[in-house]
Amino acid sequence: MSSPGPIGWARADLAAQLVAALPDMPVHPAMPGRINTPCAVIAERSPLAEPDQITGAITVHLEAVIFAHGLDPAAVAWLDTTTDHLIAELWDVLPAPAYGTVPLPDGQTYLVSRIPVDTTVTLTTD
After folding, report:
1. What gap in Å lies between CA 22 and CA 37, rounded to an integer?
2. CA dist., res. 63 & res. 118, Å (int)
3. Distinct helix (H) and strand (E) counts, the chain
């Protein structure tokens, strides 16, 4: 079995970091068919991957989407605490956009924190 490419590696690495930082929360490496909140989902950003012509590395652009349970002030407070924890545990400084809502096919609208994560992967030949 071949090893994952840069996108698969970056997704698996981010999933492992989220599982370690949020041990009591389900972490989905991609959007599941159904959301049970609270949870974390790894999503893609655009562009998904950018090559560095000089070094041969590839930067993969993903985001950790943290879904809160509800849309009320308690959900905002929970999202504040969880987002602060992730920033402190996983990343020193990063831009964290304002919270937003995500409507899903199940008819529910969820409050989310979208934390952008860029991972540079150096390709090697064996």
Report:
1. 13
2. 8
3. 2, 5
Secondary structure, 3-state, 25-39: CCEECCCCCCCCCCE
56: left (phi over 0), alpha (psi -120 to 50) or beta: left
pLDDT, one tens digit per residue, over 36-83 is: 999 999 999 999 999 888 888 899 999 999 999 988 999 999 999 998
Parse the chain into domains and list their residue ranges.
6-122
Query: Distance between CA atoms of 13 and 9, rounded to whole angstroms?
Result: 6
CATH number of 6-122: 3.30.70.1700
Q: Which of 94, 68, 96, 81 is nearest to 21 (CA)?
A: 81
Q: Residues 55, 120, 102, CA angle at the centre, nearest 5°?
A: 145
Entry pTM: 0.85
Give the SS3 label for residue 56.
Answer: coil
Written as one letter, the residue type at 110 is Y
DSSP letter assigned to residue 69: S
